[in-house]
Write a structure and sequence with these properties.
Pfam families: Nitrate_red_del. By secondary structure, the chain is mostly helical. 58% of the residues lie in helices and 0% in strands.
C-alpha cells in the first residue's frame, strides 16, 4: 500500500520514548504527517517531564498497552530479524524486531504494510485499549489503522 511511508515513519517516532530529539522533531512531524497533528500539538504543549511520565504510564507500566506485537498473541508470527535482513535492513538490538515503532519504520523504509496488515487484529486491540485509557497516543494508532485493510473476522 504505497504512499503511507511518511506517516509510518512519523508514527514510529511518535511511539518512541519522548526525549529531546522527539521534541525537536515535532514541527516536522506535524507538517509531514497531518494525520498526526492532534498528537503532535498535544506533545508540543505538554511539559517534557509530564509527557515522559505519561509515556511510561501508558506503555511501560504493564502489558495492557504493549508496543510489542508478540504480546498480542495473534496467529501471525512476530516479525524476526531475518525479515528485516531479507529487505536489507538491520535491527539495532536496542529493541526486539516486534517493537511497533520498529515495524512502522520497516514499513516506511520498504513501502510495504504487510507486517502491519498481518498484525491488524492486535493493532486494533491496542488502539481500542489506548482509546479507552483516554491517551492521545490512540490518535497515532487511529492514523496507522486507517491506512490498513480491515481485519478479517475470526473463523
Amino acid at each position: 500500500m504505497p504512499g503511507f511511508e511518511v506517516l509510518y515513519q512519523a508514527a514510529a517516532l511518535c511511539l518512541m520514548y519522548p526525549d529531546d530529539d522527539f521534541r525537536a522533531r515535532l514541527p516536522l512531524l506535524r507538517e509531514a504527517a497531518p494525520q498526526l497533528r492532534e498528537f503532535a500539538d498535544h506533545a508540543a504543549v505538554t511539559p517534557p517531564r509530564e509527557l515522559a511520565a505519561h509515556y511510561v504510564e501508558v506503555f511501560e507500566a504493564g502489558q495492557e498497552h504493549s508496543l510489542y506485537l508478540s504480546a498480542w498473541r495473534e496467529a501471525a508470527p512476530a516479525p524476526s530479524e531475518e525479515v528485516y535482513r531479507a529487505h536489507g535492513l538491520e535491527t539495532t538490538g536496542e529493541e526486539p524486531p516486534d517493537f511497533l515503532p520498529a515495524v512502522l519504520e520497516f514499513a516506511a523504509r520498504t513501502g510495504s504494510s504487510e507486517l502491519l496488515t498481518e498484525h491488524r487484529d492486535g493493532l486494533d486491540r491496542l488502539r481500542s485499549g489506548l482509546t479507552d485509557f483516554g491517551t492521545p497516543y490512540a490518535t497515532v494508532l487511529d492514523a496507522v489503522c486507517a491506512t490498513l485493510p480491515p481485519a478479517h473476522p475470526a473463523s
